[in-house]
Specification:
Blueprint (H helix, E strand, L loop, with lengths): L2 H18 L15 H4 L5 H19 L6 H4 E8 L7 H11 L15 E7 L2 E12 L2 E17 L2 E6 L6
Parallel strand pairs: 1-5
Antiparallel strand pairs: 2-3, 3-4, 4-5
């Protein structure tokens, strides 16, 4: 097989799998874990430490808006792969405090974010979140899907972040 034949076969395979993936009935709901705190632990000390950094980011920064504590969790160079916030710890803090105008609230004992799963491998931690979306065809209905955030942890702090955000 030459490269063109392989490319064509791959494209047809993708088209077929996309068509086969079209739901014939409603999807299964994405459900939050009943004990999300347990997902941020690991018997491996390095993975446990990395997951705990991410837990702190979710609880202290994203939920409680204590961006004055960002230096505990984010490196100064924090690379942001979200098109709405600048890279660098200062850029991310400015986005949340000046653009979104968040205000601090008490730091909760446990997170309230609906976490479906947490995976950690090497220096990466990915959190899958339950996301409820309005159905564009019927605004009276909604469905669940998954949002994800992935952080690269370096020297005990998040140094890089990815999510599927797009520009508004």
């Amino acid at each position: 097989m030459n490269q063109t034949t392989i490319s064509t076969a791959f494209a047809l395979l993708l088209m077929g799998s996309t068509m086969a993936a079209m739901p014939v009935r409603a999807q299964e709901a994405v459900v939050a874990a009943s004990d999300p705190e347990s997902l941020f632990t690991s018997p491996d000390p390095k993975l446990h430490a990395n997951k705990q950094v991410v837990y702190g980011i979710i609880r202290d920064l994203l939920e409680a808006n204590h961006w004055d504590k960002a230096d505990r969790y984010l490196t100064e160079r924090y690379i942001q792969h979200n098109p709405n916030a600048a890279s660098g710890r200062a850029g991310v803090v400015a986005y949340f405090t000046q653009v979104l105008k968040t205000t601090p609230s008490p730091i909760p004992e446990k997170i309230k974010t609906p976490v479906a799963f947490v995976t950690a491998e090497g220096d990466l931690v990915t959190v899958g979140l339950v996301r409820e979306v309005k159905d564009e065809k019927d605004p009276a209905k909604s469905y669940t899907t998954t949002w994800y955030d992935t952080w690269r942890i370096k020297d005990g702090k998040a140094d890089e972040h990815w999510d599927p955000a797009t520009k508004p």
